[in-house]
């Protein structure tokens, strides 16, 4: 397909996201596109392909964008982002302003006007690309906090479109959002959509309170009347591809690998597992302190339990992330220095992104999963662990500040700021009877199986298509 022909086409469904659903891979000097991993891509690509739709996004490299191309039945429409825009839009507003602010301000957000001008410019470029790609009366679904201005910009360009927006991270309460110098611009941007979705009812409620305070709109239940039209907002909790995880967990090779992990890492111990991006919102350092406290109180020894922490590298150019990595690695060293024995570690620390089958094997090998973010829109790791527990074993410890906590009531829920409370929860998880663990896990599995990522995607698009 020639670039000119691709750009001339109009598509009934257009996804607009910060990144394309593919990534560039170079092997033996030859480059190719391959589908990116992750639940969002796996959920949306079949829908977009069936609709003969398009995906607007960034290739991940600064400078000129590649020509439009088709991959697995989806037309990819790359948007260029300059190096200066990467610094101001992505590393600036997205990662150092909005990310910490929306995650309960667990780190101090930074506000710089030159960053904001880059955010506006990139959002305008994405809106223009979507406007050029969408068919008359088509559907456009905008994804996440990077592109909060796009709905209104797009409506100005194409009033005929049905525009949706979904926020994958928490939407903060009014008291926090009020700190944002560009709060009005963001609210007006979101109000340009026909449907705005959030992970939780709390996020939707926060948005409603903010919108009525910041701009002059009339609220009617879960809708606003604005500019002679009605826009709806609601919770659409995201989920995972349950069948994919279950099928992988049932694979004999994965089962054998889980047994091997238990033999090599645990040596008779019970495995307590954490899997997170190396991000300050995930609470990895406090979790390690809670585990250290469990061992310090002599209630457990490393002959009883071992901690495995998988930390996926993230945003390593940003100072706060470099500091977090240093702090986590120092804690791992301190805990092993104090409690390990020759040939027997207290903490196994893996700073890498695991292949899918290896991750599922880790989930199968663990007896206790510890998911303790300070704030999270949803946290799919908790649901992934549950989906792999085909025999209804295992215990989930879950932060009450993760969006998943609203659904996964069978988990042991904890305050991630409370080291003593987390340590006690770890002890309780290890002490839990097999019958109680099975009862809880069975309930968790029913809940996760009832609503998959495919249900989430189709449910949102159905709401968007409705008159």
How many separate structural domains? 2
Estimated radius of gyration: 23 Å
Low-confidence stretches: 1-6
Structural class: alpha/beta
CATH topology of the largest domain: the name is Rossmann fold
CATH class assignment of the largest domain: Alpha Beta
**CATH-defined architecture of the largest domain:** 3-Layer(aba) Sandwich
Number of helices: 17
Question: Could you give a short account of the major beta sheet?
Answer: 10 strands, mixed
What is the percent of helical residues?
A: 40-55%
Name of the CATH homologous superfamily of the largest domain: Glycogen Phosphorylase B
Q: Outline, from the CA principal axes?
A: globular
Q: Average pLDDT value?
A: 94
Strand order within the widest beta sheet: 5-6-4-1-7-8-9-12-11-10
Tell me the β content: 15-25%
The rounded distance between the terminal residues' Cα atoms is 35 Å
Number of strands: 18
Could you please describe the fold and organization of this structure?
Helix 12 links the parallel strand 14 (305-312) and strand 15 (347-350). The chain starts with a helix and ends with a helix. It contains 17 helices and 18 strands. It is α/β, with parallel strands linked by helices and 467 residues long. The model is unreliable at 1-6 (pLDDT under 50). The radius of gyration is 23 Å and the shape is globular. Helices cover 46% and strands 21% of the residues. Strands 5-6-4-1-7-8-9-12-11-10 form a 10-stranded mixed β-sheet, sandwiched between helices. A 6-stranded parallel β-sheet has the order 15-14-13-16-17-18, with helices on both faces. Helix 11 runs parallel beside helix 12 (319-339). The longest helix is centred in the N-terminal third of the chain and has 21 residues, at 113-133. It folds into 2 domains: 3-238 and 454-465, Glycogen Phosphorylase B (Rossmann fold, 3-Layer(aba) Sandwich); 242-450, Glycogen Phosphorylase B (Rossmann fold), CATH 3.40.50.
């Amino acid at each position: 397909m020639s670039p000119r022909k691709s750009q001339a086409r109009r598509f009934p469904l257009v996804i607009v996201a910060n990144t394309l659903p593919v990534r560039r891979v170079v092997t033996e000097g030859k480059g190719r596109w391959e589908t990116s991993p992750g639940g969002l891509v796996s959920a949306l690509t079949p829908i977009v392909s069936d609709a003969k739709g398009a995906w607007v996004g960034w290739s991940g490299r600064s400078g000129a964008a590649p020509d439009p191309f088709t991959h697995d039945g989806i037309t990819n429409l790359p948007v260029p982002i300059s190096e200066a825009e990467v610094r101001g839009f992505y590393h600036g507003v997205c990662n150092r302003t909005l990310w910490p602010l929306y995650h309960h301000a667990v780190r101090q957000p930074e506000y710089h006007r030159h960053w904001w001008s880059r955010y506006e410019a990139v959002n305008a470029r994405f809106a223009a690309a979507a406007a050029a790609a969408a068919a008359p009366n088509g559907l456009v679904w905008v994804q996440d906090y990077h592109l909060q201005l796009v709905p209104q910009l797009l409506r100005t360009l194409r009033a005929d479109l049905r525009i949706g927006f979904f926020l994958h991270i928490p939407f903060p309460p009014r008291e926090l959002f009020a700190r944002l110098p560009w709060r009005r611009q963001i609210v007006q941007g979101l109000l340009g959509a026909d449907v705005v979705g959030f992970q939780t009812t709390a996020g939707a409620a926060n948005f409603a309170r903010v919108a009525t305070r910041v701009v002059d709109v009339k609220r009617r239940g879960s809708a606003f009347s604005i500019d002679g039209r009605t826009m709806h907002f609601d919770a659409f909790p995201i989920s995972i591809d349950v069948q994919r995880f279950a099928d992988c967990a049932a694979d004999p090779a994965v089962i054998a690998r889980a047994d091997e992990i238990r033999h090599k890492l645990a040596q008779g111990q019970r495995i307590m597992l954490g899997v997170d991006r190396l991000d300050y919102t995930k609470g990895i350092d406090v979790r390690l302190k809670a585990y250290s406290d469990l061992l310090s109180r002599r209630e457990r020894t490393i002959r009883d339990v071992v901690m495995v922490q998988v930390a996926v590298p993230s945003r390593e150019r940003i100072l706060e992330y470099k500091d977090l990595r240093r702090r986590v690695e120092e804690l791992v060293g301190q805990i092993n220095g104090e409690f390990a024995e020759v040939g027997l570690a207290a903490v196994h620390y893996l700073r890498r992104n695991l292949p899918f089958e290896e991750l599922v094997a880790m989930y199968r090998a663990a007896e206790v999963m510890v998911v303790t973010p300070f704030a999270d829109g949803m946290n799919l790791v908790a649901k992934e662990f549950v989906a792999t527990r085909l025999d209804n074993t295992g215990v989930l410890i879950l932060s009450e500040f993760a969006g998943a906590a609203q659904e996964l009531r069978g988990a042991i829920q904890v305050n991630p700021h409370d080291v003593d409370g987390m340590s006690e929860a770890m002890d309780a998880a290890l002490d839990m009877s097999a019958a109680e663990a099975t009862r809880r896990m069975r309930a968790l599995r029913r809940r996760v199986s009832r609503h998959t990522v495919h249900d989430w995607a189709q449910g949102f698009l159905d709401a968007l298509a409705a008159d």
